[in-house]
Amino acid sequence: MLIDLNGFQMYLEQRGDGEPLLLLHGGTGIGADWGLVFTAGDPAGFRVIVPDLRGHGRSTNPSRAFTFRQAAADVLALLDHLGIARATAIGLSMGAKTLLHVATQQPDRIEAMVLVSATPYFPAPARAAMAQLSTDRFTDAEWAAHRLRHVNGDDQIQLLFDQMRALKDHHDDMAFTPPLLATITARTLIVHGDRDPLYPVELALEMYRAIPASALWVVPNGGHGPIFGGQAAEFVRVAVDYLSGSLRA
């Protein structure tokens, strides 16, 4: 369904009953991507809330601007709209960065969270990769694939890639110092591939040392977003156990 929030329309799906569980997708992704992780269906005992973040998928973005800080404000507005005072959450890459903002802006809103391929700031390898993002060399097949995911026209797709490329020049949106990370009260599981080409594993260690109630899972031979394919089942088991409280730091 589409709901009006913060000057745009957000698409979201809700399923199940229990403790609220937010699933926040990665950059240029969509909420439906979580179906590639939770291949056996949604975890039992949770009210799963799966939005398309601003400008992604079926969600609009009239402002034509994107920051992680704004994405966090949108998520907080979503929780308010749904009448949810406190939630658990899993965020992948962009979704994880958004959760860092949520958990520092309003720490009491997140009970526990799993941060997959997060970073406290953008290192040089990430900025170099962002600089290469473009639709200029898309094949017809790539355009067709993106049109199936982002349904508001080619301008939406073009804008998304322009926004992700522009992140290379941002220096204040992702600037989480240890003292700021130390304000996070949510139980936090940091999941990071030891072969992540964008965010060296040392950055995951920085977050682990700074966030008080945190645990660190370094995935052997894992790249960026090491939770798909053959890595999905183990991730789901550990993440659900952590969020439910049966596995603690």
Task: Describe this entry's structure for a reader.
By secondary structure, the protein is of the alpha/beta class. The chain has a single domain, classed as Rossmann fold, CATH 3.40.50. It has eight helices and eight strands; from the N terminus they run ββββαβαβααααβαβα. The chain has an eight-stranded mixed sheet with strand order 1-2-4-3-5-6-7-8, sandwiched between helices. Helix 1 packs across helix 2. The longest helix is centred in the first third of the chain and has 15 residues. The radius of gyration is 17 Å and the shape is globular. It starts with a strand and ends in a 5-residue tail after the last helix.
* CATH fold-level assignment: Rossmann fold
Query: Which blocks of ≥5 consecutive residues have pLDDT under 50?
Result: none
CATH architecture annotation name: 3-Layer(aba) Sandwich
Q: Looking across the biggest beta sheet, what order are the strands in?
A: 1-2-4-3-5-6-7-8
Please provide the count of β strands. Answer: 8
Q: Structural class, from helix and strand content?
A: alpha/beta
Can you give the mean pLDDT?
A: 95
Q: Report the principal-axis shape.
A: globular
Strand content: 15-25%
The Rg value, from CA coordinates, equals 17 Å
| First-to-last CA distance | 36 Å
